[in-house]
């Protein structure tokens, strides 16, 4: 039977960025990876520190709980429009330096590091362009994948099922 102790498994840095709907699936991934012998760190907003502690994952704060509360109380966040997109991307952009610094530090400690990031963890993708880091982005929202067969029904971009395939292909 193979040895699956933490010393023999590469460390995993989970980096979801966003709300509970973004973070909770990563917690599940982290618990399974931990069960398989990896040392797993959840690196996300301080709002989720208690969740990580409750389930037994190591935690690294990227962005304060206060900032999370400030963003989630912004009324523009809850209106599907360009304003909500600006709020989300603005919050994500603010933590890029922290993400890059953390990944760089962890990679210096162990070159086997694997980064599993959400699509809004821009720092993970940026640093993976300059260092040979093993990195994967996990997409949790299938609506962002273009499909001419079953186009998503998004505010401002609704393609009726009866629209011709050539038109759906042109739009996507």
What does this structure look like?
This protein has 172 residues and is α/β, with parallel strands linked by helices. The protein folds into two domains: 6-140, Rossmann fold; 145-172, no CATH class. Helix content is 41%, strand content 12%. It contains seven helices and five strands. The protein has helices at 20-35, 49-55, 65-72, 82-94, 96-109, 122-127, 165-171, and strands spanning 12-15, 40-44, 58-61, 114-117, 134-137. A five-stranded parallel sheet has the order 3-2-1-4-5, sandwiched between helices. The longest helix has 16 residues, at 20-35. The protein is globular and about 55 Å long.
Keywords:
single chain, 2 domains, 12% strand, globular
**Cα gyration radius (Å):** 18 Å
Give the CATH H-level superfamily of the largest domain: Glycogen Phosphorylase B
List the secondary-structure elements in sequence, H or E. EHEHEHHHEHEH
CATH class of the largest domain: Alpha Beta
* Uncertain stretches: none
Task: Using the 3D structure, state the CATH architecture of the largest domain.
Answer: 3-Layer(aba) Sandwich
Mean of residue pLDDT values = 89
- Number of beta-strand segments: 5
Straight-line N-to-C gap: 48 Å
Write the CATH fold name of the largest domain. Answer: Rossmann fold
Count of alpha/pi helices = 7
What percentage of amino acids are in beta strands? 5-15%
In short:
With 172 residues, this protein is of the alpha/beta class. It is built from seven helices and five strands, in the order E-H-E-H-E-H-H-H-E-H-E-H.
């Amino acid at each position: 039977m193979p040895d699956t102790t933490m010393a023999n498994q590469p460390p995993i840095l989970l980096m979801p960025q966003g709300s509970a709907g973004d973070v909770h699936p990563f917690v599940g991934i982290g618990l399974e990876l931990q069960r398989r012998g990896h040392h797993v760190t959840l690196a996300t907003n301080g709002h989720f520190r208690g969740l990580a502690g409750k389930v037994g994952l190591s935690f690294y704060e990227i962005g304060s709980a206060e900032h999370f509360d400030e963003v989630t109380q912004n009324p523009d966040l809850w209106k599907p429009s360009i304003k909500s997109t600006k709020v989300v991307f603005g919050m994500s952009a603010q933590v890029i330096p922290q993400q890059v610094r953390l990944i760089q530090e962890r990679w210096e400690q162990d070159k086997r590091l694997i980064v599993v990031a959400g699509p809004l963890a821009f720092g993970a993708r940026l640093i993976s362009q300059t260092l040979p880091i093993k990195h994967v982005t996990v997409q949790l929202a299938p609506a962002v994948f273009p499909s001419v067969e079953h186009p998503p029904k998004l505010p401002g971009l609704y393609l009726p099922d009866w629209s011709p395939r050539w038109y759906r292909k042109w739009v996507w």
